[in-house]
Amino acid sequence: MSDKTIRLSSAHKEGFLTGNALLSSGIIIAPAVAAATDFMSALALSIVFCLVTYITVAICSFVPSKLVYTVRIILYTLVASMVYVLVRQLMLNLMPEEFLGLGIYAPLLITNSLITSKTETKFYRRKRSYMLVLAGFYVLGYASSIILFGTIRNILVSGTFLGYKILPVTFPSLTTLYGGFILLALVSALYRGLVSYAVRKGTRNDSLS
């Protein structure tokens, strides 16, 4: 296996599994709990997050590291704000109802921690080529988690998914903030348990081979 393949595999596992921004690391929780109340809202939120975060991270990788830290963070936020303006217009054309339903939680993504902290602590400490891959997996990892969470919430709240009856019972309280936090905690605990089991099993198989 080539070194490039190993690096891609490592980025994939970290961004999607062990370092998953929502289900593993527990960051950027508020938009998920408050806005991802069903599949379509979760899809809209994930699109905004992906575009704003990845484009901002890519552009800001050219910001000189010699600048004062505070100035760099301000620049990251300014760039994210400009990117958001373009993404907002795109979403108003593609998914106007779902986008407007996100409320304040869409623009709040401008200051999400993948832009304001992960850039400095993880992404920009790598070579740009690998950093863009790693950042991409982090962004997609969070987006897929949002969609999964919104889908589960959709099914539990309404008992249906895309018009198909799935469950005979419903749990309307899961649309509330406290219901969202409880559901996210349960999903995260299950996710971490499965990831931990997979890692232990992979380590055991490697030691036996």
Mean pLDDT, nearest integer? 86
Write out the strand line-up for the largest beta sheet, numbering strands in chain order: 1-2
Q: In this structure, how is the largest beta sheet organized?
A: 2 strands, antiparallel
Q: What is the helix tally?
A: 9
Query: How many domains, as an integer?
Result: 1
Helix content: over 70%
Uncertain runs are none
Q: So what's the overall shape?
A: globular
Summarize this entry quickly.
This protein has 209 residues and is mainly α. It has helices at residues 3-18, 29-35, 39-60, 69-94, 96-101, 113-116, 118-121, 128-158, 177-208, and strands at 160-161, 164-165.
What can you see in these coordinates?
It is a single chain. This protein is an all-alpha fold and 209 residues long. It has one domain. Helices cover 71% and strands 2% of the residues. The chain contains 9 helices and 2 strands. The protein has helices at residues 3-18, 29-35, 39-60, 69-94, 96-101, 113-116, 118-121, 128-158, 177-208; strands spanning 160-161, 164-165. Strands 1-2 form a two-stranded antiparallel sheet. Helix 3 (39-60) packs antiparallel against helix 8 (128-158). The protein is globular and about 60 Å long.
